[in-house]
Structures are given as C-alpha cells and as structure tokens.
Specification:
The structure is a homotetramer.
Chain A (H helix, E strand, L loop, with lengths): L7 H10 L5 H24 L2 H32 L3 H6 L1 H18 L6 H10 L14 H10 L1 H26 L8 H12 L12 H17 L1 H19 L36
Helix pairs in contact in A: 1-3, 2-3, 3-5, 5-6, 7-11, 8-9, 8-10
C-alpha cells in the first residue's frame, strides 16, 4: 500500500500546503507565490554590481532567510505527505529541492576558489521560479496540444537542423574566415540566427554570392515559420472543436454529431441518451 | 435614477456629439478625427529640433488652440450627457481628460525646473490618439477573441517569462560581464530580445557555449511563436464557424444555436422551422 | 455599346496577345515573361557601378530595344482591343504605360541637371515586374481572403499604429536624444522596427527603464503577431471549407451539407439535384 | 521485367539494409544514423582551426575510415537491390553517392592548387546528413500539406519578390550609395532582410524618407507573414479534419469518404453499413 494514514495534525497541514480548495490553502499558495517572486527578485538585484557593493550583506541575509524558510516548507511537505517517496521523486519535489540546495552547496565551496562555479550555484536559485508552473492549471491544455503534435514538431526540427547545416556550410565555403565565418559551428550559429529571423548582425555575409544564398535562406525560413504554427493551430482548433461535440448516437436514427448541451436528436427529434462520465 | 432628462438644446448637442447616425453626428466625428490627427502631428513635428527652433512659437500657439478646443468639447460633453458621472468615469471620459490636462499642468511647472517632467507632460498629449479607438467598432470582435483566450495567453506568457529568465541566467553565468551580460536584468532583456526574434545585436554571445545555448533558445522561441498564433487562430476560427449556425429559434422553447442541418430542436425535440434562402 | 467589332486581323492579334488558350497565345505570354524578367535584370545590373562603367553603353542600347518593343506591344494592344478605353484605364493598361514612359521622360530631362530624378525615372522601369501579376491566376483566391478580412486588418493596423506611437513616445521621453531617440518620428520608427521584430539595432535603448519598456513592447508585439495570422488563417480555412460543401438541399428530406461530388442524399438516399452554374 | 530474382544471401542483406521490420534491420538503421552523425561531427570539428592544427591527421584518418565504410555500404546496396538501376537513380541512391564522392575527388585535386574548391569538396561530405531524411516517415504528411499548397505558396513568393524589388528600388533611389544602398541587388538584399523580419542592421536607412518607406515595408511584411502561415494551417487543418471522415466503404460501389452522419452512399444512393464503436 503506497499511501500512509495521516494523523489529524498531518491532515490539517496537508490540506493547507497541498490543497487549494480551503481558504487557508489558497492563502498559503498566494503567500508562496509572493515569497518565490521576492526571492527571485533578490537574486536578480544581487547580480547588479552597484547594488551588490552597497547592499550585498543585506541580500546575503535575506537569501539565507528564504533558504531556511523553503527548507522548513520542504521538510513539512515530506512530513505531511501521504506518500513521501512519490512526492520526493515527483517533478515538484525535485524542483523544491533544487530551490534550496545551491545556497547550502555554496557554503562548502569557498568563494575565492572558483568564482564561476560559485556564481553558477548562486544563480541556480533562480530556478525557484519553476515552482510557479505548479500553479498554472491551464498549461495542461497547451501541453496536450504540444504532446499530440510532438512527432510532427520533431520531424520539423530535424528538417530545420538539416537546412541550417546546409546553409551554414554553404556560407562557410562562400564567405570564408575573413567575413566572420571562421568555422562550421559558427556558420551554423549564423544560419540558426538567420532562419529563425532573429538576425543579430554580429556575423553577416559580405560577398554578393553569400548575400544571395542567405536571402534564399531567409525566404525559406520565412516560409517554414508557417509549418510549426500550422501544426499547433490545427491541433488546437481540432481540440476546441472536439470539445463541442459528443460521440453520442441517437438511439432512434443512430446519427452522431450532437452538441454537448443537446437533449433531443436534431435529425429525428427523439430523446438522446444522457451524458455520463465525459472525462477531460 | 441615473439618467437625467435633457433639455431640447442638450438633446441636439447630444445627438451631434455622441450620436453617429445623423449626418451632423457623422460630420462631427470626421472633423474630430481630423483634428486629433492634426494635433498629434503637431506634437510629433515639435519634437524635431530643427522644426522646433524655427516654428516652436507657432506650434505653441496651435497647441493652445487645440487644447482650448478640446476643453470646450469636454465641457459640452459633460453638459449634454444624460448621465454625467457615467461619462466622466468611462474610459472615453478619462481619455478625453488626459488629452487636455498635460498642457495645463505644463503651465504651472516652469520649464527650467525639471525638463524631463515637462517633456513627459507635453508628450502625453499624444495619447489623444487613443480617442480614435472609440471609432473602431470592429475592434470589439478582435477584443472578444482575445478575451476568450486571455487565460491561455496568460499561461503562455508566464511560461515564456520563466523561459527567458532561465536562458538569461544561463547566459549570464556562461558569458559573464565582459561580453555585455553585466547583470541578470540585462541578460533577461537579451533573452526577451532573442526569444521574440527581434535580435538587436547590442548584447550578443561571443563564447562557443553561449552561442550554442542561445541557438537552442532561438529554436525554442521559433517553435513557441506558434502557440499564441495557434490560440488566437483557433478562437477566431471558432467564432467564424459560429456564423454558420443559423439564427432560427425553436417555436416551442425559443432557444437558438441550431446547426444548419438540424430539423428538430436539440433542447425540446419539437420541429424546427424549415430553412429558406439563407444566403451565406 | 462598349465593345467594337474587330476586323479578322485584329481578332487574330487579340487572341495571341490577350488570349491564353491557343498555343500562339501561350507562347506569346511565355516570351513576354522572359523579356520582362530580362529587362528587369538589365536595370539591376546597370545599377552596379563596375558593370555600368564597363557595359553602360550596351545596357543603354538594350534598354532602348526593350522600350521600343514594349511601346509597339502597347500600341498593338490598344489597336486590337475590343474596348480600347477599358484597356487603357485598366490596371494592366496603366502598368503597361508606366513600363515604357520612364525611358522617354529621361530623354527630355538632361542627365546632368537632376541626377536623383533621372535615377528615379530609370528605376521606375523595374515596375515592369508588376506586369507579371496578370499571369498569377491563383492570386485572386489569396486576394479574396485578404479582401474579406480587410476591415479587421485595418482595425488591427490602426491599433498597432497607436501602440507604436505610445511606445515611441515613452522611449523618446525615457531615453532622450543621447541614445539616438532624437525626435518622435525616429522613436516611432524604432517602435515599428521593434514591434515587427525586425530589430536592426541602429537605434537601441541603453537605460534600464528604456530596456524594460521595450522588452514589454516586444512581448506585446510577439503576442499581436498572432492577430493578423489568425484573421487570415480563419478566412482561408473558411474559404477552403466552403469550397467542399454545396448549399444544395435534398428534394426529399431537404437537408443540406452535401459534398460537391455527392449524387445521392447521404441522409435519405434519394437523388440530389444536379449542380449547375457553380462559379469559382 | 524490372525486379531481379535475389539469391538467398542477397535477400538476407536486402532485409537488413533496406528493411526496417526485422530486429537486424532496425539495428542497422540505428547504427547508420549514429555513424552519419559522427562523420558530420568530424567534418564540423575539422573546420575549427585550433582542432584542425592539433588533431588534423586523426580527423583525416577517421574521415577515410568513414568513406571506405560508406563506399562498402553503397556497393552492397547496389549488389543486393532487386532493381539496381532504380536504386542508383533514386534520391537516396544519389545522396548516398554524393556522401562518398567528395573525399575521392579531393584526392585527385592537389590541396595546394585551389584551396577553395578542395574546401568545398570536403564540406560537401556534410550532405551526408541528408541521408537522415529517409528515416523521417512523418515528413511525408508535412510534405503533402506543402505539396497541396504549392501553387498558392508559389504565387505568394512571386508577390513577395515583386514587393521586395519595389521596396529595394525605392530605397536605392531615396538613400543612395552613401547609406550602403550601393546598387539594386544590395537594396533588394536589404528589402528581403527587412520584409522577412531578420533585420541584420548591416544595411540600414538613415534618411527620414527612407525610414518612413522602410517602416511601411516592415508593416506590410508583418501583415504578409500571415499569408503562408494561413495557407499551410488551412491545409493542415483540412487534412486533420479529413481524419473525421470514416473509412466505411459502400457495399454497392465500394467508394469511401463518407461523413460520420451519412446513412446512404452519396455516390450510388444505397445503404451504408452502420457505424459501431468508432473510438475517437
């Protein structure tokens, strides 16, 4: 049996921390969102040199306050969870752990030793923002449309990577190192910047042939921007349409295509079977 | 009772100023649009240094002329409105007030004191252009599609902000201050510029790892550009399809929304009136 | 009566020049496309300084050859047209005239006098490429979808221009002349470059507040890129769907929604009325 | 007769190399993808100067190893193919040949003679990545949607090229050589960079008129980005909707394509088999 029996106190905490129906549970969630956003803001402010020089010590103290708070919350979540292992191994459990670990790890690595690693560890705390995803219920619908079109999007990306490789190599051959196309990876970086229509302008073709080839590449990129859009739109539209129709058949004339709110067959006027259990 | 009884003179003014059916009302609207556009043009021309040096005094006079005109119009609107409080507090009432206030406020703050504030006040007059929105009836349809997909778009933007924060922090750690990624807010600005495919090129990755990460970010941005498009298209298409429903009402229960091929009311099962001659 | 009676010789010319069914008419069209593209290519090559210095005289001769050819064709078109006035005033007639006029006008304005005007006149010959539009039959379908959504697109553009004006003015106030935002028209140019995600990088915000505002503007631009796409897609999809359905009603059960190729009612199995006169 | 009779040994090889059903065939395909990606990676690494200086000799050896391997595979494919000519002339046969030829050709052209040509030949090996397309089954669906909308996309591109030519020429006349618009081809390159919203910023208008014209061009580009998207989406959605048609065949005339709610064959009027249990 996977779920433990909770003591009454654990039940109360469970309803507050994991639940979203009770007023206490709602307030807990709202406070949590506010605290997460504040802690992310502190990390961002701390990265600005002027503010770090003046308020660095204060930021450090607030940072530790948030870390202790999130650690307590993490422990309480484990304590009052009906299925501890499931929570710890769930995406939210891992994200909760990742939100507190970097501050502790930074303790044991002296700052002087390797600055970059420490900087990386301290920035990782910003991933706390990922915890907000749990509050986005509607994301599931979008994720569903993306999941259904996953294979098509994979094919699309494979083709796009092949196209960027070909254009990158062509420009590497045509332009050469003196125009900034010093090697193939950089040329492919240029091709991605171009095909996605970002167009930084840090690597740019200068020869007539290179410009002609890249103009062709842009037009192709412009055309294929339509493909992922088309795929997702078609999936979303199909999902939207599907939600309005049931698969109920009329018991008299056995025709389908009745709306969700239909009570009588629109073709023969007889009663329609009632709707039960329409999941999703 | 909220609506006052208007005197005959107020009624005439009301029909001209608020109405759009009578010829006088139409002409008033057309003149108003022309005047608004002219006053916006004057603000724009006044901001060009050469023109301001030569024609600044003239612009100042024209500006005051428009302000007096708009003030008179605002007062007449209040005077002839059947429900004064409702008009003053409506969006259009507030916009009308905002279109005249800046010129008056600029009077009391001497120009020498704080140039930026004055400049701001004078530029705010350009918000007069917002008054044109009132004339765009069809905007409601688009606004409807946007409102219906508001929750989905909110989720989408939340996810996009999380993505830009993660990519911004990654690039901040990988590139560091020497490449222009001096702090996290700037790195997030770079991430937004990149994911939205604007691509100024003022902050650009220079290391191989930074370029690889940002290329990944671009491809993700390219893919998710499809999501808002898909959402809105699906909503618009669904709205358009709604137009294929007939407006036939059931003679028994008088509910509408029946499909073109429906012969019986889907709500009460009684006969529907036959369809004749439904052109498009 | 608008149409004249043509002599037999005029009829032959008319079928060759205006017609597309006969082999001669098809060959005439193919030759014309080839000549137009060649003449456009010559104008383009002539603009490259190195080629102009060496081959300028040759280009000038070829240019005059094409002009004489197009002039002859224009005169023959008028001569053999059943309704001369209608042709001359039609879009194609005007375009045909515009394709030959610049070379003649350039004769009477000495090159030394005003180089820019002459250059403009000579470049105008490139508008010959517009003549190709006549050969794109399928363009009508696209144009139809655009025309049906014209009002919505107009509303969309009005709102976008209002948004670019507001963002342009905000950045003008926040950034000021020292960042390149020297006046409001330039700031609006920047706002258009940003909202359309072109992002040249020639005018770029440098202050923290300016970057925050422009990041907001980019996200808004990213969202509203969906709106015109959605409008046109919905129209095209609706057009595509419409083409597959007829409005024929079954004479027995009077239900509609039959496919174009249906011969029997799919609901009751009786004969469907034949399709006549389905234009488009 | 086009297909030869295969010996038992040829049959086994055929099933492994061309087949995808047997475990051996699947493993062969997976190994092949891994080897192709590795060989492409080697070409990319070899282009980086630092790595080439240090590991160039190793890369050369690995390169020859892959070339021999692919040559053997190519010969075996010809040997065990039931229809040799069809394979050699098929797209995959040509791509397989192109993947090995460059290394051999590079042997006969001494490196010192013409570096660029040799570099081109060596880079051509990266086209091996094209061989992956054969493994993308789902690409056919996307290709189908593209093929069905090919005419519309062609019309769209013709119109876009006409628009870019007109804007390019306008900017060439307005801006002139001193702003970087040195000739018409470069101006058209700028117009393509702008209309596709890539926006490098290497060629940029600087005059007020030039900026006004290019802002107009951007807005037009922004609007017409919707057109290819709309075309492809409409096609894809129409393909997806096609899935809602049943695969029931009429028992009389055995034609398919009947709607879900059809009870009688729309081609011959006879009864259709009833629908049972059509999940989704």
């Amino acid at each position: 049996m996977t779920a433990r029996t909770l003591t009454p106190r654990q039940k109360i905490f469970y309803e507050i921390i994991f639940g979203t129906e009770t007023p206490a549970g709602k307030w807990f969630d709202i406070c949590l969102i506010a605290i997460i956003l504040t802690s992310v803001l502190i990390v961002m402010l701390d990265s600005i040199w002027d503010l770090h020089a003046e308020w660095g010590w204060l930021f450090w103290q607030i940072e530790w306050g948030f870390t202790v708070l999130f650690t307590l919350e993490y422990l309480v979540r484990i304590w009052c969870s009906p299925n501890r292992k499931a929570y710890v191994l769930s995406i939210y459990g891992v994200v909760d752990l990742c939100a507190i670990l970097p501050t502790y790890i930074a303790l044991f690595f002296p700052q002087a030793a390797s600055l970059l690693i420490v900087r990386l560890l301290r920035i990782l705390r910003i991933f706390r923002v990922l915890r907000l995803i749990a509050f986005l219920n509607e994301a599931n619908m979008l994720a569903g449309a993306l999941r259904r079109s996953a294979r098509k999007i994979f094919v699309f990306f494979s083709m796009m990577i092949i196209i960027t490789m070909i254009f990158g190599c062509l420009l590497y051959v045509v332009e050469g190192p003196e125009s900034g196309f010093t090697n193939i990876p950089i040329s492919i970086y240029w091709a991605i910047v171009t095909i996605t229509t970002v167009g930084y302008g840090d690597v740019v073709p200068v020869t007539a042939l290179g410009r002609a080839i890249s103009a062709t590449g842009m037009l192709i990129g412009y055309a294929i921007i339509a493909v992922p859009t088309g795929i997702i739109t078609a999936e979303l539209a199909s999902g939207l349409r599907g939600n309005h129709l049931t698969t109920r058949n009329c018991s008299q004339c056995s025709r389908a295509g009745h709306d969700l709110d239909a009570r009588y067959c629109k073709y023969c006027g007889s009663d329609l079977p009632a709707l039960h259990q329409e999941g999703d």
